[in-house]
Automatic annotation (TrEMBL):
Transmembrane segments: 12-38, 44-71, 83-104, 116-134, 179-207, 214-237, 243-264, 271-293
Lineage of the organism: Bacteria, Pseudomonadati, Pseudomonadota, Alphaproteobacteria, Sphingomonadales
Organism: Allopontixanthobacter sediminis
The protein's name: Probable membrane transporter protein
Family: Belongs to the 4-toluene sulfonate uptake permease (TSUP) (TC 2.A.102) family.
A GO CC annotation given for this chain: plasma membrane
One Pfam short name: TauE
Amino acid sequence: MDVYLPIANLSVNGLVIVLLGMITGVLSGLFGVGGGFLTTPLMIFYGIPPTVAAASASTQVTGASVSGVFAHRRRGGVDYRMGTVMVVGGIFGAGIGAILFRWFQAIGQIDIVINVLYVLMLGTIGSLMLKEALQTMLPAEKGISRSVKKRRHHPLVTALPLRWRFYGSGLYISPLAPLILGIVVGILTMLMGVGGGFILVPAMLYILGMNANVVVGTSLFQILFVTIATTMMHALTTRAIDIVLAVLLLLGSVSGAQIGARIAQVARPEILRLVLSSIVLMVALRMLFGLGFRPDEIFTVVSL
């Protein structure tokens, strides 16, 4: 089933795009990540321009997040107060990201910036996830018991002024910490078309010290509203969203998120992290190869 993408100016197999959206949805339900960190590079590999892939992926991440939030809300897995603070920071960060996106676009460097950011982010996150997954699995294989330590927030969080109680997360910390975290994620969402959950989830666990039971649902809550804001900003400023591409991605992602949420309830977390980290590192290596590969035809973007 071939469909034409007007903004991207090319024809693609619609079933392949729907499948990519479903993969994103499953990741969203499993890990609380938007999934755009894999969907965007996969679309780039498929031949879709990086700017269109990044802008359209943010639209699709919204659909996956809606479905995932409802799935986790039913079991009380969302801290709405914490999520709201991060949403405010995320919207502000998306505004900063829109300015940066337009600037890089104007100087003709946005495609290379998107690719470099993906190589750095995927390589770092994939390596950390792989290390944690192996550390979790190895003691179990040797029969060594492992004491579970209570999570505590980072000392820098303790040093911040003001204190709020976040009952859902079991925290009494400064709201500036989740606000700053939201700003960083908002910038990345605008530039890379990602929900930011692959940074947000580890940061919520190891920097904020949140209760693990509400991390995934709260992450999806933040991603939902920030990607809505990002989509609107892309539509008004960059005009890089391909509505046909976004709709095809949405068709797969909404159903995929429900599947992912159900798998998350029965699967071993360390196995899931091991699989995801392996996929992330493979994608990072493929993008790194693409940066160093010299194409047969070279194009440059100039302003007229």
